[in-house]
């Protein structure tokens, strides 16, 4: 169904969206989307930096038992 949408169809959709929401609302929405993408990329980079800084977090090959000693005997 969507295979038949070409350039004229996309332009028509863009014009309808622009008329419905207005230029100011669309530009502010795109600004917020850009801020969100930037924040996401920064968070991913900070997470990778934290993993490199703490070798215990970076080594996921060996699992550690963190159960308190008092709880280990209980079944």
TrEMBL record:
GO terms for biological process: protein transport by the Tat complex. Part of the twin-arginine translocation (Tat) system that transports large folded proteins containing a characteristic twin-arginine motif in their signal peptide across membranes. TatA could form the protein-conducting channel of the Tat system. It is found in: Cell membrane. Gene3D superfamilies: 1.20.5.3310. This is Sec-independent protein translocase protein TatA. The chain crosses the membrane at residues 6-22. The lineage of its organism: Bacteria, Pseudomonadati, Pseudomonadota, Alphaproteobacteria, Rhodobacterales. Pfam families: TatA_B_E.
